[in-house]
Amino acid sequence: MFQNLQRHRVGLYEKALPNRFSWEEKLKTTKQLGFDFLEISVDESDERRCRLDWDDETIYALRHQCEQYAMPLQSMCLSAHRKFPFGSADPEIRKQALLHMEKAIALAYKLGIRTIQLAGYDVYYEPSNHVSHQRFIEGMQQSAKLAERAGVMLAVEIMDTDYLNSLSKFELLRREVDSPYFTAYPDVGNISGWNYDVVTELKLSKPHITQIHLKDTYRVTPDSQGQFRDLVIGEGEVDFNSIFTTLKQTDCVVPLVIEMWAQDDNWKQNIITAQHRLNQACDHANLPKLFAA
């Protein structure tokens, strides 16, 4: 391990900021809050999916703004495949899934995005079965080859549904895809929420983790479906002290991203509260603070 511990680089999920903000406001605010980068969202909404069809003028104007404010878009949360999944029984939807992937990789390449987070769903609005699983694997194999060619990393999110809710399951999937550009993007909230031991899971997949989402959740129980979003970090049951201790023990210094949602006028204070609590977890693990006091 390095003698001098390095502070993790930490980013902010775009949806933690008000949707009404312009790109300039988003970049400036993210910078002012002490983050190192912003994670752009391309979800299933028409509003955000249309980003995949931006022309070069729009793309490079945004990249110029990122350079102007020294606030890169290091990663992309690509959840558009929830609507157009690779495992769909409809061949037209599978065709759209691949087209979305091609466009996302091209957009990432032009914006300088290093990592595309993929949604770990074979299907979402259809029944999941062995056939949809095999189609998903085939889609990931195709996607990995596209990513290899572009030099853009694909990282599968560990999800809030039981299809791919642990890094253990990712390791099985990785054997099928077998590409250095196909990695894991664990969401510690989702792993904890499904009652997996986050420490064991992180240690298991440490060589294959590209980036980590920091999010709080409530666990699934026989009497509850749990809660997988809209909690301020520190309000749920995720053991961030143990997570940061594990990052130190395994010498894992991959970038981290706070995943929150701007639901009301308290969005900024919620981010600041999360930052303070994550700093406390860093202190507990004897790691450098993520944010200036």
Approximately how much beta-strand content do the residues carry? Answer: 5-15%
Order of helices and strands: EHEHHEHEHEHEHHEHEH
End-to-end separation in angstroms reads: 26 Å
Strand order of the largest sheet: 6-5-4-3-2-1-8-7
Q: What low-confidence regions span 5 or more consecutive residues with pLDDT below 50? A: none
Number of helices: 10
| Class derived from helix and strand content | alpha/beta
Shape: globular
Tell me the quaternary state.
single chain
Features:
293 residues; alpha/beta; eight-stranded parallel beta sheet; 10 helices; 42% helix; globular
Describe this structure in words.
The chain has 293 residues and is α/β, with parallel strands linked by helices. Helix content is 42%, strand content 11%. It has helices at 23-32, 46-49, 56-68, 91-111, 130-150, 167-177, 188-193, 198-205, 240-249, 267-284; strands spanning 10-13, 37-42, 75-78, 115-118, 153-157, 182-185, 212-214, 256-258. Helix 9 (240-249) links the parallel strand 7 and strand 8. Helix 8 (198-205) runs parallel beside helix 9 and helix 9 crosses helix 10 (267-284). The longest helix has 21 residues, at 91-111. It is globular and about 50 Å long. The chain starts with 9 loop residues before the first strand and ends in a 9-residue tail after the last helix.
Summarize the structure.
By secondary structure, the chain is an alpha/beta fold. Helix content is 42%, strand content 11%.
